[in-house]
Design a protein that fits this description.
- It is a single chain.
- The protein has 6 helices and 9 strands, in the order E-H-E-H-E-E-E-H-E-H-E-H-E-E-H.
- The radius of gyration is 18 Å and the shape is globular.
- With about 200 residues, the protein is α/β, with parallel strands linked by helices.
- It has a single domain, classed as fumarase, CATH 3.20.130.10.
- Helix 1 links the parallel strand 1 and strand 2.
């Protein structure tokens, strides 16, 4: 396990060095996207339309932030992670077509996404659920917001962050999966406990 600080844009060579259990902090730009935004991204790609915000090398955060508009712009009040499996149907294609290297969310992702991570060089990281206000402390600026017609939580928010984290690498670019590892260890421990408790 290593503690690593990254800056955007994040390159494939940065990602290939990461392993499950590593702790990452990064500074630079991220963008948020939930279900509706993922669906629209793929529609844009299908129709050959240009994506109107930076993606290549920019971390993708599964998040529907709570934001307030003031006379000077937008302020993010809370920015906790959304359950990532909601994006499973889309994420592999996003990774393949847009060079997304670092995905942030909670709960892990499925085999389609893991295959794309291995092939194209991406990792999945977890930010602590229930720490939405803490996450907002790392947001220094709202650089842009797109697709507000989807609603504030589903819109694309392009955020400038400083030392955003800690992020735990839960699926690395070699297919190693911390969730699976913990589940196997728990099942093994349960079996041992049951065996030792048998009269």
């Amino acid at each position: 396990m290593k503690k690593i600080e990254l800056k955007t844009p994040i390159l494939e060579e940065d990602i290939r060095k990461l392993r499950i259990g590593d702790i990452v902090y990064f500074t630079g730009t991220l963008f948020t996207a939930r279900d509706a935004a993922h669906k629209r991204i793929l529609q844009y790609l299908k129709n050959g339309k240009e994506i109107p915000f930076p993606i290549n090398g920019v971390p993708l955060y599964h998040c529907g932030p709570l934001a307030r508009q003031t006379s000077t712009g937008w302020t993010v009040i809370a920015a906790g992670p959304t359950t990532s499996m909601r994006m499973e149907a889309y994420e592999g294609d996003v990774i393949k077509n847009l060079d997304v290297r670092l995905i942030i969310g909670k709960g892990g992702m499925g085999e389609k996404t893991v295959r794309a991570m291995k092939e194209f060089g991406a990792v999945y990281s977890a930010f602590t659920g229930g720490a939405a206000v803490l996450a907002s402390k790392y947001v220094k600026n709202v650089k842009d917001v797109q697709w507000l017609d989807l609603g504030v939580p589903e819109a694309i928010w392009v955020l400038e962050v400083e030392k955003f984290g800690p992020l735990i690498i839960c699926i690395d670019s070699y297919g190693n999966n911390l969730y699976t590892k913990v589940q196997i260890e728990a099942e093994n421990n349960k079996a041992k406990i049951l065996e030792n408790s048998t009269p």
